[in-house]
Amino acid sequence: MAAVGQAAPVVRSIEVRSADPDGEVTASLFRRVSIGLIVAGIQKHLEADDARLLGVESLDEVPYFTAEEFAEESATIKLPLAEGYVRMTDALLRRVAEEYLRATAPGQPPRSLQRLADTFGRPQETVRTWVARARKDGWLGQGVRGRAGAGPGPRLMGYRSHEEGVLRSEAASSPEGWIQRTRVKVDPDGIGGTIMRDTIPADGPIVTEEIEHVDDWRKRVDALEGEDG
Q1: Average pLDDT of 92-106?
Q2: In b/e form, how buried is each residue of 93-122, taking b as 16+ CB within 10 angstroms?
Q3: Cα 136 versus chain centre, distance
Q4: Where are the beta strands (DSSP E) in the chain?
Q5: Distance between CA 206 and CA 198 in Å, rounded?
Q6: 131 near 140, Cβ under 8 Å?
Q7: What is the rounded distance in angstroms from the CA atom of residue 2 to the CA atom of residue 39?
Q8: According to the model, what pLDDT value does residue 110 have?
Q9: Which of 178, 164, 165 is nearest to 229 (CA)?
C-alpha cells in the first residue's frame, strides 16, 4: 500500500508473493525487491496524471527512467565549481538535485536559490536553469509553483536504489560482511554539517554514527573522498 506524502509518494506496506503458486518467499527473494523502484514507478504515474490535468505534456512524453541510468561521476564534482564553462551532464544534474533537496529540506532557512548559487559558485539564474533541467530530466520531482522544494525524481530514486544494492553486494563479498561509508548531514542553518559514518551490512539495518561537526561541509565532502571507509 502506498500513500502520497508532502513531497513524494511513500510505501506504507508491501506484500511479496512468489510467481510460482507452489513457491516460497525466501529472504533472498525479498532482498531483491527494490522499494526505490516501486516508489519511482508510482511517482512516474502521478507526474503523468499531473501533466494530463495541466495539459502540459501527453502521457507518452513523460520520460521513464530506470536504475540503469546512472550519474556516478557526480561524486567527483568539486564545489564550488571552478570558473569557466560547465556542460549540463547527468552527473551535474544529479549533484544539482541532491544539493537542491538539501537546501530546501524542512527546517532549512529561506533563500535556497541564493545558497545554491553560493554552493556551486554560479549566478542564481544559471542555477535556476539547472534545477529546471533536473526536474525535466527526472532527477527532481515536480514541485509546487511559487514554492521552493520537491521530492527526488524517479531517476534519482532509481539511482539511490541501485547505489544501496551495490553497497550491500560489496558488503556481502567483504571478509567482515559489512562496509563503511562516510557522508555529511548538513546543518539546517548555514553551511556547517556533521560527519556521519554508515556501517552497511549485506543484510539487515544500516547503523549510523556521528563522527564530528565541521564548519563548512562543502570542503569536508571533497576531503572525504581521500579517506578509507
Answers
A1: 89
A2: bbbbbbbbbbbbeeebeeebbebbbbbbbb
A3: 16
A4: 2-4, 9-11, 178-186, 193-201, 207-214
A5: 6
A6: yes
A7: 8
A8: 84
A9: 178
Longest dimension (CA), the chain: 62
Burial of 159 (0-12, 13-18, 19+ CB in 10 A): buried
Radius of gyration of the chain (CA): 19
Tens of pLDDT along 123-134?
999 999 999 999
Highest mean pLDDT among 44-48, 157-161, 194-198: 194-198
Cα gap 202→19, rounded to integer Å: 25
Please state, in angstroms and rounded to a whole number, the distance separating the CA atoms of residues 128 and 100.
10
3-state secondary structure of 102: helix
**Cβ atoms 49, 88 nearer than 8 A:** no
